[in-house]
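User:
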Amino acid sequence: MKPADTILTASPYLAVHGLTRRYGAFTALDNVSLALRHGEFVCLLGPSGCGKTTLLRQIAGLDLPDSGRITLQDRDITRLPPAKRDYGIVFQSYALFPNLSVADNIAYGLTPRRERARHRERVRELLDMVGLPGSEDKYPSQLSGGQQQRVALARALATSPGLLLLDEPLSALDARVRDKLRDELKRLQKKLGVTTLMVTHDQAEALAIADRVVVMNNGQIEQIGTPAEIYRRPASRFVAEFVGEANWLPAQRIDAHSVKVGAHRLMLAGVPTSGEACTLFVRPEDILVKPRWEAAPNTLLARIADVSFAGAMTRLQLLPEGIPGVTLTAEVCPSMLNRQPLVPGEIVPIELPAELLVAYPEVRA
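Assistant: Predicted structure:
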C-alpha cells in the first residue's frame, strides 16, 4: 500500500490531502497525504530538509500550501489563520516570554482576561500536571531547560486544544532530561487523550513515544506504521537505513524464497521479482552467534574481526566466510551465548534467520 493510500476510511480527526509546497525550484512537500485518529500520538520522523517541519507549519497555519487541503474534524482549515485552528504548539526553543512569570506565560492565551481567579486555578492545575507545582512566580531565566519546556507544554495545553503540535520539543535538552521528559510527555498525552503530532529527527524518540511513525524523505512519505512495523519491516531501503542499524548483503535471486550470497544459498520469506539482483537486510541483533557448529539452513562460519563492549550487549564485527568484501555487525547478549567470551580472530558459526531477512530490489543508478 502506498503512503498516499493510507488515509483512514473512518472519518479522521486531522487529515492532510495531497499537500504540496514549493519554494522556488525546491519542493518541500510533494503531494503528501496523512490522517490522524482522535487521541493518537503520531511522530513525523526524517532527516533535516525532508519536509516534516514544513508539514507541521502547514497544519499550524504558519505557512500556506500551493495545493491540497487540511481538514480538522471534517472542517476545512487550509486557509484559516492560526488562531482559528484549535491547537496548542510547543517549539524546540521554548518561546517563553522572558519578562513574564511562569503563571503569566501559561495564562497568556486564556480569555477573557478579567477572569483572573479562574486563570490562576487553571495555571495551578497545569503546573501540577507537568510536575512544576508552586512555580507560578518564577521567571523563565530561573528555570532549567527541562523546566522551561514543561512550562511551554503547560501553556500549549492551557486552552484545552483538540490538537497538540510539537516541533522537536526535546532536542535542546541533555540526554537524561530528554528521556525523562519524553516518558512524562507520553503519559500526559495518554491521560488527556489529546491528538498529538510531533516532529523529530531522533529515531529512538519516535519509536518510544509514538502510536504511529511517519517516515519522510525528500518531501514525501516513505512509510507509515507502528514503531514495530517501521523497525521490523521497513518499506524501503531508506527507512531501513534511517531507522536503527542495518547490515546489507548483495544477493542474486534463485527462486521466490532463496538467494545466492557469495558461496551460500540463503532462504527467506520472499524475494523481489523485478530482476535477478537484490540486497538483503538484517538487523545486528537478529544475527545469531551459535555456541557450536551444526549444519542448518542459513548457517555459515564467520571470523570475528573486532569485539566491543556495549553495556547489556556485546558488539561484534564479523567477516563471513564465502562472502568476500562484506562485514557484518552483530549484537549479542553474553549471558545467552553459554560459552567463554568471544575474541578477535576466532571463527564462529552464525545464523541469518530466514524470517528476519528482508530483500530489496537492487537500485540502479
